Amino acid sequence: MIKKIVLYFVSLTFIVLTFSGCATVFSGYEDRVDLVNAPDNIKVYSIDGVELPVSSRTETKYSIVSHSFGVKEIKSINLRPNEKHILRLKADDKEKLIEVYPKILGTWLILDLITGIFPAFIDAYTGNWNYFPSINAEF
User: Fold this and answer.
1) Which of 2, 23, 50, 111 could be a cystine partner for 129, CB 3.0 to 4.6 Å?
2) Nearest to 86 by CA among 45, 36, 31
3) Residue 139 buriedness (CB in 10 A; 0-12 / 13-18 / 19+)
4) Bridge partners, 125 (sequence order)
5) What is the pLDDT of residues 7-28, one digit of tens each?
6) How confident is the model at residue 21, as a pLDDT?
7) Considering only CA atoms, which of 21, 137, 32 is closest in space to residue 80?
């Protein structure tokens, strides 16, 4: 009985990994994009005028120059990696229009090719093996 359950679980896992892309299974459908040097009151809009939620997190980094640790606040947005995006950044009375293009992450491509060619087609179709570089949000 236990052998059947284990065999069923192993078979199901193999089928899921074979017929779906690695990036689709493990990374999800949105990519977190950091806004470098973003002001505190930044607002991000799509080209259609829809406001995108801006989240913030803090990171502690070591500075070689001052030989000390510092806390830095990093703002970010989530974007679907399957297409390019045109974004409007606004802060106070300043505005900036930028285009963001997805790039293929080589790790997902290699994993897809190791697990078979079909997962590569899935990830290529969904665009989930793409990522976005950080956006310079300085005005």
Assistant:
1) 23
2) 45
3) middle
4) none
5) 887 777 776 655 566 677 777 7
6) 65
7) 32
At 19, which amino acid appears? F
Can you spell out the DSSP letters for the chain? Answer: -HHHHHHHHHHHHHHHHHSS-HHHHHT-S-EEEEEET--TT-EEEETTSPEEP-EEEEEEEEETTTTEEEEEEEEEEEE-TTS-EEEEEEETTEEEEEEE--EE-HHHHHHHHHH-HHHHHHHHHHTTTEE---EE---
Whose CA is closest to 50, among 78, 71, 31?
78
pLDDT tens per residue, range 42-70: 999 999 999 999 999 998 988 888 888 98
Task: Return d(Cα 107, Cα 115) in angstroms, integer.
Answer: 12
Do the Cβ atoms of 101 and 55 come closer than 8 Å?
no
Which residue's entry shows tokens 């052998």? 3
pTM listed for this prediction:
0.74
